């Protein structure tokens, strides 16, 4: 049985996996962030200023503040991993 051909795909210059994987999946409103994280509004803003483990800051679209879903989820994973590591 013949071996399959391997086709190499060249990337365009300036495009990398890292940039693509960090692409925003969805914007979240403050209300959605609060529902997802189960923390208060004031705590969100305190955590944004935390030097050790800062919460992702919002992105401003006009006068509206939104959060990038993937950044919020990554923060939540880091918090859980740190808590489990300390046990």
Helix content: 40-55%
How far apart are the first and last residues' alpha carbons, in Å?
54 Å
Mean pLDDT comes to 83
Query: Could you say which structural class the secondary elements and strand pairing correspond to?
Result: alpha+beta
Largest sheet: spatial strand order: 1-3-2
Rough outline: globular
Return Rg in Å: 19 Å
The total count of strands amounts to: 3
Low-confidence stretches: 13-17
Strand content: 5-15%
Instruction: Characterize the biggest β-sheet.
Output: 3 strands, antiparallel
Element pattern in H and E: HEHHEEH
Features:
87 residues, alpha+beta, 3-stranded antiparallel beta sheet, 4 helices, 3 strands
What does this entry look like structurally?
By secondary structure, the chain is α+β, with helices and mostly antiparallel strands. It is 45% helix and 11% strand. The chain is built from four helices and three strands. A three-stranded antiparallel β-sheet has the order 1-3-2. β2 and β3 form a beta hairpin. The longest helix has 18 residues. The protein is globular, with a radius of gyration of 19 Å. About 6% of the residues have low confidence.
Topology:
Layout: H1 17-21, E1 27-28, H2 30-37, H3 41-48, E2 59-61, E3 64-68, H4 69-86
Antiparallel strand pairs: 1-3, 2-3
Give me a quick take on this structure.
The longest helix has 18 residues, at 69-86. A hairpin with a 2-residue loop joins strand 2 and strand 3. This protein has 87 residues and is an alpha+beta fold.
């Amino acid at each position: 049985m013949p071996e399959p051909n391997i086709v190499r795909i060249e990337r365009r210059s300036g495009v990398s996996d890292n940039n693509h994987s960090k692409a925003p999946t969805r914007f979240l409103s403050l209300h959605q962030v609060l529902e997802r994280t189960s923390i208060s509004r004031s705590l969100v803003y305190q955590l944004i200023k935390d030097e050790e483990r800062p919460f992702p800051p919002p992105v401003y679209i006009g006068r509206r503040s939104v959060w990038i879903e993937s950044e919020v989820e990554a923060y939540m994973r880091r918090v859980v991993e740190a808590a489990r590591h300390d046990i």
